[in-house]
Structure prediction request, 345 residues.
Amino acid sequence: MKYAPTDGIPSLKKAIVQYTEKNYGKVIDPANVIVSDGAKHSLFNLLYALINPGDQVIILAPYWVSYPEMVRMMNGVPVIVTPANKSFYPTISEIEKAITSSTRAIIVNSPNNPSGAVFPDELVEKIVDLCEKKNIYLFMDDIYHKLIFDGRKIAPVYNFTKKDIESTNIVVINGLSKMYGMTGFRIGWIVGNRKLVQVIKNIQSQSTTCNSPVCQVAAEGALTGDQSCVDELVKTIQTNRDMVIKELQSIPGVKVAMPEGAFYCLPDFSALNKDSMVLAEFLLKKALVVTVPGKDFGAEGHLRISYAGGADEVADGMTRIKWALDPNSPREIQIGNRKVVRDWQ
Ligand code: PLP
Prediction:
């Protein structure tokens, strides 16, 4: 196996062009696509290409942990917008108020990691309008865009602009990791204007050279093959979601919003413990369940729970969380071949 083209093998780029036309109703050219080492790398390159020291990037809380860190790595300034009503949906005026003359971009991730929220089409439309009016980029992190529950359909972001692909402010980021569970293949991509793609190509040329052609061929197979696995995945995680939410709703004091997509929920545990680090560590040590402290996502008092696993595994995790938190639980439970004894109140 030899080096491959820096921007991706032509057959994979063609598959991404077709994917974009089918899923976004947008006709683009292979010159509008660049393949990178996962969506995380795509985003990193995008920020590297566009963010100068001091530039501000608006990030909507709750947010994926890597966004602010990556912006800081560029010597940029993450500007966090937190909905005042404590929901997972900012208002357009909250976003607009955060814009300054240094704002370069807004990052939107819907369906969202960590909350599972899916932004209403009207909100996305208003964000597109705002970005065009203020001439700032809209980075659409669409890594979960196929994982939406209850049969809901969302409008592709390009529906909200009259601009063509060369002049639009929208840059779409996507990849294989979530819809096909192909996390280790490390394939992500960006759809943007040719000039941006060329700049990112220069960055990749001097950094990673190219993606593994083996993984790129696998990616092409995933994108062009039978897509029923994606529907199956959505069914499985929707069933898991229903079970997890029901269990969470039965814990006194816990507040949880119904996730509309992705495979996470972000319940508010602040009535039980305001410090999400302490609570996550408690659940890890006592119940052997991994949750992620909401603090890392800009949502202190919450815990992120992933329900991407098999139904039994997810149910087991919920049983253990409830056992650890309920003071009236039995003193002992069996976890695998371990007997765990309650030594706390
Ligand atoms: N964007 C979001 C919101 C994510 O949650 C993740 C992974 O967790 C990524 C991007 C990165 O995906 P990839 O595995 O393609 O780098």
Notes: The chain has a mean pLDDT of 96. The pocket of pyridoxal-5'-phosphate is lined by residues 38-40, 64, 109, 113, 141, 143, 175, 177, 183, 188 (CB under 6 Å). The longest helix spans residues 228-249. Residues 6 and 216 are 12 Å apart (CA to CA).
